[in-house]
Predict the structure.
Amino acid sequence: MAVPTYACPEALAPKELLSPNGRQLMAIPATQIRRGMVIVFEGDPCRITEFRHHTPGNLRAMVQAKLRNLRTGSNFEHRFRAADSVEPASMETHELEYMYDAGGTYHFMNTENYDQLEMEEEALGDNAQWMQPSMKIQAEFYDGRAVGIRLPNTLTLEVVETSPVMKTATKTASQKPAKLENGATVNVPEFIGTGDKIRVNPNTGEYQERAK
């Protein structure tokens, strides 16, 4: 008589992991990753920016993903096998108020508990140029450390340098580069002149409208 076989309970049980703050996390199959999810990859928190399920011919299914390392800011691609497990990162979000910059070190205050913390310019990346005193931002924390920030969708800044306004300029005219008070350069309509205040989206670096 055939002897029945049973799967080992350990093989069926989902993998349990510990987050940096000691809380239990559950590893998930790579096939369950979604855009915007933050996972731990090679020890760093990385956000999934794009993903695509792929089954080439008779080969096993896989997930092709684009990721952004939240600690270094670098973007890269990785191919996960369907059998791979990934670890969701335990992230916390806090509101910070930007205070000042001292030699490339940016100082912030946590608006919830008034703790002060520092972030290096390298960690802020392109976001550093948009920092303004008293600006409120959302910061993502991993392992008790800020690893990324989210800027407001609109900032009002003064144009300090651009080519003269053309007399024939209209709202549908072509664009020209303009240097802003924070040193950033954006493309603006021809009717915008030096001294004008404009609204820009710091996340995309795009001109929105002239400020009233």
